[in-house]
Amino acid sequence: RDRPLRDIARTALWDHSVEDSTFNNVVSELRRAIRVVHPSxxxxxxxxxxxxxxxxxxxxxxxxxEEARWNVRHDDSVENWRALHEAVSRVxxxxxxxxxxxxxxxxxxxxxxxxxxxxxxxxxxxxxxAISDAEGVYFATSQGLRALPxxxxxxxxxxxxxxxxxxxxx
Length: 170
Hints:
Layout: H1 6-13, H2 20-37, E1 44-45, E2 52-53, H3 61-74, H4 78-89, H5 102-106, H6 109-130, H7 134-147, H8 152-169
Antiparallel strand pairs: 1-2
Helix pairs in contact: 3-4, 3-6, 4-6, 6-7, 6-8, 7-8
């Protein structure tokens, strides 16, 4: 949103030069897809055709994750924890996995998003530990491990569940 220039979008999507018609077709398909999901949202290219203005109603999963994490830090309600759970459930793997977006790594975006995911998963796992919800801890750590396989902190949080269960059973 902070750099809505057409040239930046083109560079993000293709690592080589593409025809204007190709780019315009992709933007048109995006506009149609957005209208199918959100008919009330107006997504247009600015009149000077140099900018692509993404409406505020369109939000990324990362933005939703950040908002949910901010909300639980400022209001420790069950509803906010549920919202964080929902946001964490959207993690499918390493950000941009399977896409050949060199710009994401060059700008440090992938690492930045992974850090946000790990922080949210850690918060959620600790919340579930505090309320003795082993299944919740496994969910939160599983999502974290999707984004960063083998992460030591996620594995340690899982081990805390085992330690708690062992102490209860002893």
